[in-house]
Structures are given as C-alpha cells and as structure tokens.
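Today's session is about reading a structure prediction critically. Students often jump straight to the picture, but the first step is always the sequence itself: look for stretches that repeat, for charged clusters, for runs of hydrophobic residues. Only then move on to the predicted structure, which in these notes is written as discrete structure tokens rather than atom positions. Here is the chain we will use throughout the hour.
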Amino acid sequence: MHNSETDGGSFLLYEQDGVLLTTKGISGDSSNLHLGKLRIVKEKTGIYMLWLSEENIGGPPFSGSSETDWTVINPNQGSVGYHNNGTGRPIRFEVEDLKCICLSPISDSNGQPRRHNSGAKADPARTCNVTFVQTDGTTYSNLIFPGGSTSGLLDALTQHLVLKRSCHDDSMILCEPKSPKTRRDPYERSLAELRLFPDRNPAAMHSASYARLGQLGQFGVGAWRFVNDLKRDPYTATMTAFSKISDYLLHEEEKANEDIAELLQKSLSLDEPTTAVQRVPIANCDADENTVLVGSSDSSVEGYEVIQPPVADLFPRPKVLRGQPLTEVEWQTYFDDEGMVQNSEEIRRKIFSGGIEPSIRSEVWKFLLGYYPWHTSQVERKELRDTKVEEYFRMKLQWRSMSADQESRFAAFKQRKDLIEKDVNRTDRTIPYYAGENNANVSTLRDVLMTYMMYDFDLGYVQGMSDLLAPLLYVLDDEVDAFWCFVAYMDRVSLNFQLDQAGIKRQLSQLRVLLQAVDPHLASYLDTRDSGNLFFCFRWLLVLFKREFNYPQILRLWEVFWTDGPFHGDSASYSSSNFHLLLALSILDSQRNTILENRFGFTEILKHVNDLALYIDLEEALAKAEGIFIQIKDSPSVGMEVRSVLGLRETSDSSDDSPSSNSTDYLSEERYENALGLHYL
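Below is the predicted structure for this chain, in token form.
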C-alpha cells in the first residue's frame, strides 16, 4: 500500500510486512526476533522511517518521541545513547537523518538460520539483514526482510535520498539528502532528547531565549556545551561528567537539578548549524579505491582533501579459523596418576583457539588464573584450598566485626562500603543468577568485594570491579574460589584502577601504536576528527569488553585472554601478547568502512561505538585479531615499538622507526575514580 492517508493526517509512502527486528540481551547469545512492519510515512514535520511490532500495529499512533530510549536506562545492559531495543519497541527516525544502510546475509554465529520465536524458519537464501545507521552514529538493531524484499525499500528511499554503493564495502549503501538544508547537528538533537531535567516552569519555554534556541531548550544547550568541552578535553570532561550523569539517571532521583546543570553548562558558546554537502547521485563509485576522503572535524562541512595513503609494508593478513572448545574428555587426559596436569601449554593453546566447554569451566579457570598452579598434585591442591579458605574467612571477619561506632571514625572504609552496596545492586541483575529481590548471590558478590577491600586496602574498591567479579562468581559458584580467582584477575588488571592511571594510559598509547602500524589511513582520519586519542575505546579496556558482549561470549573471551596467547612459532620469541588490544583493533577494523565512508566526527564515532554493544561477532573478531598478530609477527619491516607492544622480539630486518603515538590528554588524579563510572554508560 503506497501513498495512502493514515490516521492522524500522515501519508503512507511505503510499507513492508513481515519485517523481523533482532534484539539481544546480556544473558545469552541467542537473538530474539520481533515480527512487525516497516513503513515510510510523510507527516507535517517531515518524512519518517517507522518500524512497528505486531503488538503496536492497530494501537494508539506512535508519537515518535525517543524519550523512552534515552531516559529509561537499564544499568545492567544499556547505556546513555544506546538503543537497546530489547523489547521490540517502535523505531522511528527522519529519513533525511539516514547516513548509510548495511546489508548482510542472515545467519547466526554458527552459520545456521535464525528462527522466529514461533519457530518459523528464516531462509538464508531469501532473506538478509538490514542495519540503519544515522548521521549521528546511532546504529539500530538488525531488521530481517523476507524474500529478498529490500529492493522495494531501496526504490522507496530513492525518492528522498541519493543512494550510492560504497567503494570499499559492497554491503554498504551511502545515503545523502536530495535537498540539503540548514539544520541542527543530529547529535545536538539526540542530546536534547536526553531530557535530563523535568521542566518545572513551562512558561519559560515561551521566552525569547527559548525561542531563539528552538527545540534544544536550556538543558539541551547545557548538554551540547558539554560536548564542546568533550572535544577539547575528552578525559576530564567526559569521564567525570558522564559518570555523574549516569549515577543521577540511575539512582539519584532527588538530587538537585542545579548540581547537574552546573556540570553540563560549562561552555559559553554553541556551535553554529552547518549545511550538508550536495552530491550528485551515481550508481557506482568512480573514485580510486585507494584514496581516502578526509574532512574537517564536522562531518557535514564542505571542503574535503584527498589524501593518498602511504604504501603498506605489512605482509598480507592471513585468515584464521577458530577451533573447538576443550572438552571434559580431553581435559581428563592431561592428568597423571597423582592428578598433576601435563603439558599446560598445549591446554592453553587449545583454549585460546576454541575456549572451554561450560561443564568444566569452573575447574579449568582456577588453573588459568593461577589459583591452582599447573604443576601441583590433587593432594597439594586440596591442602592449598584449605589454607585459602581459612585465610579468606579471617579477612572477612575483620570487616564483619567492625562496629557502627568504628565505621563512623573510619571514613575511607565507610565510603567504599557504601559504593560497593550501591554497585552490587545494579550489577548484572538481568542475569537469572543475580535477579530478584533478596538474592543470596548478590549478597555473596558484596561480601567478596568487601573482603577484597580488606585484602588490598591501598586499592580498595573502584567502580568497575563488580563487573569483573560477577562472571567469576557466576561460573565458580563458590565464595572462596571466586575471591581468590578475583585476586588473581585483579593482579592482571589492577593498574586499570590505580589513581596514577598507568594501566589505561599505557594501553591507549599502545593501541594507538598498533593502529598506526596496521591502518595508518584510519589513524590519520581519527586525528582529523579529534579522536586520535582513542578515548571511545576506554570502556573496552577498563572492564575487558564486559559491556560489549553477552554472558556466554564474555566467559569465552576472558578465558581466551587468560591463556596469554596467541601461540605461533617459537613461544620463547614473545612474552606477552596484549591480545585484548588486538581484539580492540579487530573491532575498529570491522567498523573502518562505516566510519570512513560516513565521515563520522568525534561525537558520531563515540555514539556508533557505544551502539555496537551486544552486536559484535565475537568469533569473527577473535579470528581477525589473531590474523593481525600473525601479520605483524611475520612482517620484518615492523618497527620495534610495535613489536614490543606484542612482546615480540626484534627481527634482523625490523627498525625502530615506526611512528610513535600522538600525545594524549589524561585524567587528573582527583577525578580518576569518578571517571571509572563510565562503564555504566
């Protein structure tokens, strides 16, 4: 049905039945599919794309307000600016805000067709995934079109947009408005939709100042001014402000509005609106595929410079196939008669390649994390655990026996205790293991964190630690074992939480070095967009991708990290791989064309990266990360600076002339602990 009038005076320009919306949650790796209709409608305010589930069709007209998406924040899996449409809520956006359309085959992580909740099978030969990306970087959940019906959608969109297939990615279709007009920056609009503060004085909305500012409003202006600060000093501005904003949205309903307003309204100027570049619609890309278009820091300003990329000296990147998980039968074959593990490196190679079967994960993790030394007998491990049990409960008794009077004179202890209480009540509560009121596992989570605070009082507790402990307790299901494995894990990553910021600073710098070596085009582009410091990767590194993957995936990922792989060639030639940095590089590589082709700026990149959460193909990312490692290892021209990041020895042909990373602004010590609250975004 086309060009028909609907209720409310809007005109239906396009409609497709049977369009499935895919959504994911953190509790599992399966997709939920919601059946609905996709429409293009013309309204008084513009032309809009609209997806409605079957439950919404026929109900009250959808107002189009995205207030729910922005203000209802799920602390366990959502984020400020993250369109986590886990319930099949309507999708609505202006067609002219569409930046690109990504098409991909429809299959799950095992290459099998996904199924609708009712059991209807999706035929991969006749269906495909469609992903919409807006100009502000918002990336919506995949839509599955039946019977290859995307041609009808593209035909309808050509009436309003210029569509052009990407030069570098055949699955990407770039979109440009046919009639460019002066309009507000899309990210400015998304910040206005945050609606951080209720309007307690409606009459003020009609004042001259509000009329001048348009739809943005006073507090929206404050938010956008904050983004200006964000560009100038991303660490200090963003990670302190957003941590406080998220805490306000999640837990502090009665907090004074003035405190947050003062935090946001720090800049004195608002960026002027820009005019989009008019382009001629063409069917195919005529540009040289080896050129990269680089513009100014605003993705919509005119004047682009063609930069010829330097000649790459890297060997071709190999394709890596992931292996099968370590099984219980295989695991048992590695023990001798005394229960001592034989050939631990072979076990770690196996785990790096394919992970661990869930049935033996709790036992194997104790070895991977060093709680149980590899070369100990069964008797020795029992004696060790008995000692650890006694030590744990002795430390636990120290804080449990502290009276309220003592706490009142121990400010540091009470402050950390209150923070732990707050965090455990919002950590992974959608996971059945931690769900519900008066959950004993939540109490155990708190007890372990409190005891760790006594174990390492210098470090104490910092936001983010509960995210690292929760999966450990979930797998081990034992308070003592979870504590000592958490101690071992913190030994690996504790520098992430130190006030001197040593861990985060070093990792971001090392990631920049790797990116410069592997993809200098993207590194150069990010520099032009105020993103060369890779701030948008901060959350990945802080909590080791905990917020980017669902529970089954993060368990698999962490056990891969703990093997200290990859394992290629002479294992003595490298000491530590920093494989988590290669995974970050792999994800950036997968989003390279989207960022470059759409000419994303700082805010668009930040938002697009946030929207990737729960929609990253883990096995593909791991395989690509391992391929990058082999590529760097086998390329003799790679300098020592790059090789040292991966713990590789210098080859006879390598030189230390690789480009060094750009200087990066870092947080001040007094604000660092607040900044760690970013993981709630």
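Discussion point for the tutorial: The first strand starts at residue 4 and ends at 5.
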